[in-house]
User: Which sequence fits this backbone?
């Protein structure tokens, strides 16, 4: 385990008065990736006990159609083995152990939904893409069906970097909330036109966009609201970034350190 994962138990608190938006919500990224092994059962069980609003996780699909919870399109960084998930049968993937766990294996989407269904926080599911950044064709309907079967469709926000994924979700399930994640390189290549990003998302049936926290400027949230779209953030993983997310009043932000985010929200931080 990383030292950071033990940090919450030894944290020293001091009072402070950061400007905190009461409406800004916290999403535990991959279950709290700096506290526990990311996208693991132990992470999801622990995150479900925290005072967070959402628990975020990622979904890929094996060659034989099994929906799995794993961030990277390829194995190796967080688990045993190598190779692309999209090219593998579930039978060859199911026994690959996650690093820094007590023998945990890669979970399936149904397993994760069953864990999170019992908790209070909402679910935030990112539909991933293959190693070559191509889409998993048809995955949108499969994800929606699984959410319905597990009784958590009404509690789940679906996110993706690929706007076509969200357009498909909107067509299949118009009442499912979605968020378009925007990469820094694409945002800067487009001239940082926040209103244009918001308009494209709205046209696709998406009610929110999310930028990397360092890409957001004061006034961006207001510009998005003028178009009828909310603004969120991702990768707010340290104290300055978390404080910035609250101060800017974003709708919701993902963080690898939900423990710090909770302290900031309540006016107590390191």
Assistant:
């Amino acid at each position: 385990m990383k030292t950071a994962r033990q940090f919450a138990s030894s944290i020293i608190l001091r009072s402070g008065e950061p400007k905190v938006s009461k409406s800004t919500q916290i999403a535990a990224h991959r279950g709290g990736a700096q506290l526990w092994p990311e996208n693991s059962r132990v992470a999801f069980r622990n995150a479900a006990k925290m005072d967070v609003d959402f628990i975020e996780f990622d979904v890929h699909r094996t060659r034989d159609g099994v929906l799995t919870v794993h961030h990277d399109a390829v194995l190796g960084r967080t688990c045993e083995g190598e190779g692309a998930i999209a090219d593998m049968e579930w039978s060859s993937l199911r026994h690959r152990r996650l690093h820094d766990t007590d023998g945990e294996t890669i979970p399936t989407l149904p397993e994760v939904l069953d864990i999170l269904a019992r908790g209070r926080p909402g679910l935030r599911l990112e539909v991933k893409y293959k190693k070559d950044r191509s889409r998993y064709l048809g995955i949108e309907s499969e994800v929606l069906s699984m959410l319905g079967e597990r009784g958590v469709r009404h509690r789940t926000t679906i996110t993706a970097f690929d706007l076509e994924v969200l357009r498909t979700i909107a067509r299949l399930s118009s009442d499912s909330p979605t968020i378009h994640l925007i990469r820094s390189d694409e945002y800067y290549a487009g001239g940082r036109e926040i209103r244009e990003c918001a308009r494209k998302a709205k046209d696709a049936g998406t009610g929110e966009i999310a930028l990397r926290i360092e890409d957001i400027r004061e006034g961006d949230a207001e510009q998005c609201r003028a178009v009828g779209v909310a603004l969120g953030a991702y990768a707010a993983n340290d104290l300055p970034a978390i404080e910035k997310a609250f101060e800017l009043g974003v709708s919701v932000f993902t963080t690898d350190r939900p423990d710090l985010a909770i302290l900031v929200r309540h006016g107590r931080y390191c």
Notes: The first strand starts at residue 14 and ends at 15. Residues 68 and 108 are 4 Å apart (CA to CA). The chain has ten helices and eleven strands. Confidence is low (pLDDT under 50) at residues 1-15.
